[in-house]
Amino acid sequence: WESASGAIFYGYIDKEVPEGNLDSSIVYRRDLPIIIGMDFNVDPMCWIMAQFDQEKKRFNVFDELFVRNTNTVSCLQELYKRYGTHTSGFFFFGDASGRARKTSASESDYIQIQQAINEGKFKGCRIKCLTKNPRIANRFASCNMVFCNAKGERRAFIHPSVKHLRQDLQERQYKEGTNEPDDYGDVGHSSDAFGYPVHIIFPIAVRLTDKEPAIFASRRVPQLQGF
User: Fold this and answer.
1) CB-CB neighbours of 184 under 10 Å
2) DSSP characters for 56-122?
3) How many CA atoms lie within 13 A of 226 on its CB side?
4) Residues near 105 by Cβ (< 8 Å), separated by ≥ 6?
5) Which range in 89-103, 153-167, 203-217 is most confidently predicted, on average pLDDT?
6) Contact (Cβ atoms closer than 8 angstroms) between residue 38 and residue 92
């Protein structure tokens, strides 16, 4: 573990494979579901698009939305413009606050997504939102474990073109002497969008030892079909 004043995503290395988590060979695949991780901040609103390669156990981020002064409906329109012809399913992951906090005048973010589905968009779509957000430390731990676990294995990769997420992962830090993120300006939104699906697809667990609790990756094999 890094000190509290250090980088939050210390497992992430902004270099091409095999040294790091960048992979310019990542391509959007029509045969896999698209995973959308969503941060519902209005300015900017940040969504990431990824796919999970079940065979290789790889979480591949291939695209992102980073939009100023916007709302959920506008982002859904842009997402549909890019991937509306996709027929292998969509999984929308977001935080619990999206149930109540508004980015439009009258409807919650998740209701707006459901309305788009009811209109026939995003075929095979499922929405995964938690009733209560996990501890932020657990979400960060899940992210670091997929970036690089204790065995040196990397399971999350990002296409170099996804520049806002890359920058956020490198810049996000803890407040000095605390375990609280030192977020300001645009910092924190893209990495939160990344963290919501990662925390659910790659859960962590805590094992009590004689000395202290140990956080480790769950043995559960990620299965998107179960969501």
Assistant:
1) 8
2) TTEEEEEEEEEESS--HHHHHHHHHHHHTT--S-EEEEE-GGGGT-BSSSSSBHHHHHHHHHHTT-S
3) 7
4) none
5) 153-167
6) yes
Task: Return the structure tokens found at 108.
Answer: 């919650």
Half-sphere exposure of 219 (CA within 13 A, CB side): 1
Which residues are within 8 A (CB) of 2 and not within 5 positions of it... i.e. 6 or more apart?
A: 8, 10
What is the longest distance spanned by two Cα atoms in the chain?
55
pLDDT of residue 227: 43
How is residue 75 written in tokens? 């982002």
Residue 168 predicted with pLDDT over 50: yes
pLDDT at 100: 52
According to DSSP, residue 210 is labeled S
Higher local confidence (pLDDT), 224 or 113? 113
pLDDT band at 99 (very low <50, low <70, confident <90, very high): low
Quickly list DSSP for 132-158.
SPPPHHHHHHHHHHHH--TTS---EEE
- Burial (CB count <10 Å: 0-12, 13-18, 19+), residue 17: middle
DSSP label at residue 216: E
